């Protein structure tokens, strides 16, 4: 297997300096896909003008946000500063969502820091114009091991709604077999078990997701350097449940570009942005790679492997590239 990964980009300032010349977007730039109309912007989620510039008057049906858990522009914020920053992009999200729409937010709960920022974020959301619908937990297959505590193997996903959006229940059946016995009920004088009354051999997705594999280097969809990549399968599940074909989906924290790839696969249009030009470039390159090869990531390679000859020693010259998009 090829072994050529990038280290975590948020911890590698020297490598970041080497990669920036290969990024086609700078602050304020927007790349528009000529094929499907996707947009990728090097923009600030907390700046309403930036949000208006990428939306251009369109309304989204679904928002999926994965903000850095108290990490803004590689600088730690106090919880008060972090929540104030969150208030801005949550408010901007509400402003560009259609009257009946859904919002999903991945948020952390640091057990070594008062489970922040989850509790303060939830309290902040009480004052926003969204209604809470569910708190989902995704179980990671590979957790953070410790000898002095329970192993941390979960990520939290908050589900809010604006208005009364549709929810596609039929899209929510998983491949998990109904193996847990219980839910006894008496019918015609006979006690029956849940499996006897079921119309399916598999279970519908609940608010605990145990069937999704955390992304790691052996998976095709892996994008090394991206420290918080979400699995395609979980974004696929959200898209199927809370949007329809041709709907506009927004993601204010592009990172590895997973929402864009899932939207491309499921025939949705995606507008996504990131304040960091390196992540916007990764997002665009991931879409281009998927279209040209069918691959969803780089497994144990990386998005800049054709540009950077040695990530520790130097770079080659920037090549001429034919982009499937334009800037404005």
- Please write the string of helix (H) and strand (E) elements: HEEHEEEHEEEHEEEEEHEEHEHEHE
Overall 3D shape: globular
Q: What structural class do helix, strand and pairing data support?
A: alpha/beta
The major pleated sheet works out as: 10 strands, mixed
Query: Architecture, according to CATH?
Result: 3-Layer(aba) Sandwich
Count of all domains: 1
For this structure, what is the CATH homologous superfamily?
Answer: Vaccinia Virus protein VP39
User: Any idea of the CATH class?
Assistant: Alpha Beta
Assembly form of the protein? single chain
DSSP summary, beta strand count: 18
Q: Can you give the mean pLDDT? A: 87
First-residue to last-residue Cα separation: 40 Å
Strand content: 25-35%
Please state how the strands of the largest beta sheet are arranged side by side: 15-9-10-6-3-16-17-2-1-18
Number of helices: 8
Radius of gyration: 21 Å
Helix content: 10-25%
Unreliable residue stretches: 313-323
A few lines on this structure:
This protein has 328 residues and is of the alpha/beta class. 25% of the residues lie in helices and 27% in strands.
């Amino acid at each position: 297997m090829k072994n050529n990964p990038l280290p975590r980009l948020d911890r590698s300032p020297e490598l970041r300096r080497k990669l920036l010349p290969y990024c086609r977007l700078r602050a304020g730039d927007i790349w528009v896909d000529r094929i499907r109309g996707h947009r990728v912007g090097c923009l600030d989620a907390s700046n309403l003008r930036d949000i208006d510039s990428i939306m251009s008057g369109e309304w989204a049906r679904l928002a999926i946000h994965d903000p850095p858990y108290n990490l803004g522009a590689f600088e730690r914020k106090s919880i008060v500063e972090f929540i104030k920053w969150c208030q801005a992009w949550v408010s901007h999200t509400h402003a560009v969502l259609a009257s009946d729409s859904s919002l999903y937010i991945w948020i952390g709960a640091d057990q070594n820091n008062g489970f922040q920022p989850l509790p303060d974020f939830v309290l902040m959301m009480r004052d926003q114009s969204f209604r809470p619908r569910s708190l989902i937990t995704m179980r990671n297959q590979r957790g953070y091991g410790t000898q002095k505590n329970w192993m941390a193997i979960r990520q939290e996903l908050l589900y809010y709604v604006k208005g009364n959006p549709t929810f596609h229940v039929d899209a929510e059946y998983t491949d998990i077999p109904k193996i847990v016995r219980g839910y006894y009920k008496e019918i015609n004088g006979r006690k029956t078990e849940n499996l006897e009354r079921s119309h399916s051999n598999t279970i519908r997705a609940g608010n605990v997701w145990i069937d999704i594999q955390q992304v790691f280097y052996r998976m095709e969809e892996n994008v090394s350097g991206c420290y918080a990549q979400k699995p395609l399968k979980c974004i696929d599940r959200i898209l199927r449940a809370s949007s329809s074909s041709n709907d506009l989906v927004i993601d204010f924290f592009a990172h590895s570009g997973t929402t864009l790839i899932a939207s491309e696969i499921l025939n949705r249009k995606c507008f996504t942005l990131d304040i960091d030009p390196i992540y916007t470039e990764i997002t665009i390159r991931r879409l281009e790679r998927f279209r040209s090869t069918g691959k969803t990531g780089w497994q144990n390679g990386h998005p800049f492997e054709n540009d950077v000859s040695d990530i520790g020693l130097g770079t080659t010259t920037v090549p001429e590239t034919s982009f499937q998009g334009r800037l404005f």
